[in-house]
Known about the structure:
About 35% of the residues lie in helices and about 25% in strands. It is an alpha/beta fold.
Amino acid sequence: MADPVLSIRNLTVGLPVKLDRKNAVTGISFDVRPREILCVVGESGSGKSITSLATMGLLSPGLKVTSGSIDFDGRDVLKLSNKERNAMRGDQMAMIFQEPMTALNPAYTVGAQIEEVFRIHRNLSAADRRAEVMRLLEEVRLPDPKRLYDAFPHQLSGGQRQRIMIAMALALDPKLLIADEPTTALDVTTQAQILVLLKQLNERHDAGIMFITHDFGVVAEIADRVVVMRHGEIVEQGTADEVLNNPQHPYTRALIDAVPRPMTEETTPEANENPVVIDVQGLNKTFTTSTGMFKPSRTVTAVNNVSFQVKRGETLGIVGESGSGKTTLVRCLMRLIEPDSGAINISGVDFAAKSRSELRSHRKDIQIVFQDPYGSLNPRRTIGSQLIQGAINFGIPRKEAWDRVYKLLDIVRMPHDSVNRFPSQFSGGQRQRLCIARALVVQPKVLIADEAVSALDVSIQREVLHLLNDIRDRLGLTVIFITHDLRVAAQICNEVLVMQYGSVVERGGVSQIFNAPSHDYTKALLSAQPGQNWDMPVFDEGDTLAKI
């Protein structure tokens, strides 16, 4: 067996005082070997990212390694000078961050940013640097490398930006590659392509990969070995087969139990005699963009003749890849952008025909919960001031607005004293619950959840899904649920609408879409789900995270 590329022994990273525990990580030990993919899993706050940042020497000033060693290629990283660490980063060890849009500099072309790695670590001519960048762009299977070389990050899709990050990380053939949730925000087909690419590059470059994720489907797809972390400690580690199919620790069993199960049973949807709340007919939206001086403009059809109905108390799932038109469709429904044509009837009101001033009093009827709970709340204002604002804006007396807020906090299972705290004092799952409460305070008839659980841990994801189902049934809401994860859609939706290139290619009940899809695109989405060959175990003892 080859010697480890990375060997972490008894690593402890202390936290600043007055936090919920003494250490971010406590006494953890594991190895990463050449050509091996080690997946590190656990909930938010388990210490996964802190471990990776300590390895790269990128810990924030408030965090300090208090004991242990991080041995990389025969040297203890913790004993190196800043100059030695800088020479090592990007050359011998590299990292792919979760969000490429924030990791890339928006002011520079992607070609210049990849070139920077060679300029700092290698003595190459400008022509040789450019040739190396072109080679990398081809290796990560990006189309038209010459055009992309001069493109800025905002001109690329999420999957393309992530491939740029991978190209930068692999530029100098590092011995260790750390990937921190690199596929979380990607649609299933792009995610599948990235995972295949990483496996191929791992074999080709002989690198060891530490892959941080909360997606057990991804773990089943690529892992050789698995480390499970909780509250900064390793509770279980072993081969992928041992951890996924015969987990020993109750926490590991509870995490696996929280993973959405693929739908295998045929079911007949229950008849719904409730009135239609959303009636969309022939909706269209195109965008025209300039491609440069003396070049013809480019027209993109984002929504193409889309029609559907949703009844009160139903949840309609909208699935498809990035760029399929899902978000543009719901933005048209809410009149955040203007549709070109079509009718949008929400509870008897034609949203498409109303002027903006006429629409103002009806906007409370349709509310949205966005994907990122961190970016959806104002960090400088208390939760209470943000929850009450919508009701006050629509003329609700302050006392009644506060009564609504406290009732909604009970519904979303958050304590009343949350109103006096700031967003930074809550976890990601708690923030998403508060965002749901904020959307409901104006008593809407329609709630849109735009990728509202994609960035959450599987355990928190399940809680939020149960919460959305419970709120829909208790309040008689109509819900539109946008997601790229079809297994998540199966847990909450009555019907599913599949979009591709702005058009609806298939619509049907959840059972029909999952068990008997008729369109090739739907079949491709289902086959791209990671972990297709993993037969998830069922645990008789009923371990749940609430019991552990």
